[in-house]
Amino acid sequence: MSPSTSVGTSEFLAACAGERTKKIPVWFMRQAGRSLPGYRELRKKYDLLTLTQTPELAAKISLEPIERLGVDAAILFADIMLLPIAMGIPVRIVENVGPVVDQPVRTLEDLKRLRPFSREKVSFLEETIRILRGELKVPLIGFSGAPFTLASYLIEGQPSRTWTLTKRCMYESPELWAQLMGTLSDGVIGYLETQIDAGAQAVQIFDSWVGCLSPADYRAYVLPYMQKIFSALKKKNVPRIHFGTNTAGFLKDFANVDCEVIGVDWRISLGDAKRLVGDKALQGNLDSAIMLAEPSVVQARVDDMFREIDPHEGYIFNLGHGVLPETDDQRLRQLVEYVHGK
């Protein structure tokens, strides 16, 4: 896979391909929105879903971190629940709670409400991507939630600390679980293909809650669906990033998919992660909370990370999860400059 694209020779795309880079590429999960002043101003006027579904506004939010932070890739401003919404499941985003599904999917009868994905339902995302490709000089990353994370929201009805209902469905209702995960997997494939066809130059799948599973349950109930998704996306010939939180206990299995990049959180050292993911490129993994500390503390932690691996060889710098809302964006910019100087 060549790093040469319409954005020129990209350090980010080169790193995705496992190539050596002169400069360590940097981007941040949740860099678009949350901590940035332009986004906060827009949130005074619009709710989150309106922003994601209005191409001109979503593009504006996606572009803000490129200039303010100096990162090497943009990520589409969207929400992982846009896919279930497009598939017929109403979702509310509740402040300080997260996604809420008032009618959860817990029976085969409930599952009938989940319709096959149709790209016409996300035409606003296609338009957002077209706008961004006309403005950006760095690659654009599209994304989706993973089937397990999406299924957990649909079953639980809202974020959970234990995901008990989700696990109970896996164990007690294998037919429902298989149909739900299969339908969501097909949806993820179509959703990401739509983004790539519109102009996304890389895609990331977020499995935010899969770390609640044991290694055996991950292999049995999740991994086959992830293998199907990544294999289906291979023909699109763009870098594919697989990211999950709290995956250290089964990272070798998590990396057992046909993708270019494995993203990891802060619960594992980069050295250990590299040994487990093998030849794939690595992305991560500074603890988001450390950005609330003084720059000297942040820089010392970055130095520790880079002693674990060769950061110029198939590596992308990122946080271990999303930017926290209270993060000072000027400290993020300082971090980008520090990493670029290594």
Q: Which properties best describe this structure?
A:
disordered N terminus; TIM Barrel; globular; alpha/beta; two-stranded antiparallel ribbon; 16 helices
Descriptive overview:
The chain has 342 residues and is an alpha/beta fold. The protein has a single domain, classed as TIM Barrel (Alpha-Beta Barrel). β9, α14 and β10 form a beta-alpha-beta unit. α4 runs parallel beside α7. It starts with a strand and ends with a helix. The N terminus is likely disordered.
Write down the secondary-structure element order. EEHHHHEHEEHHEHHHEHHEHEHEHEH
Shape: globular
Low-pLDDT segments: 1-6
CATH architecture: Alpha-Beta Barrel
In CATH terms, what is the fold-level topology? TIM Barrel
Cα separation of the termini: 26 Å
Strand content: 5-15%
Mean pLDDT: 96
User: How large is the count of helical segments?
Assistant: 16
How many whole angstroms does the radius of gyration measure?
Answer: 19 Å
Say how many strands there are.
11
Query: Helix coverage percent of residues?
Result: 40-55%
Number of domains: 1
Major beta-sheet overview: 7 strands, parallel
Structural class: alpha/beta
Strand order of the largest sheet: 3-6-7-8-9-10-11
Text of the CATH class: Alpha Beta
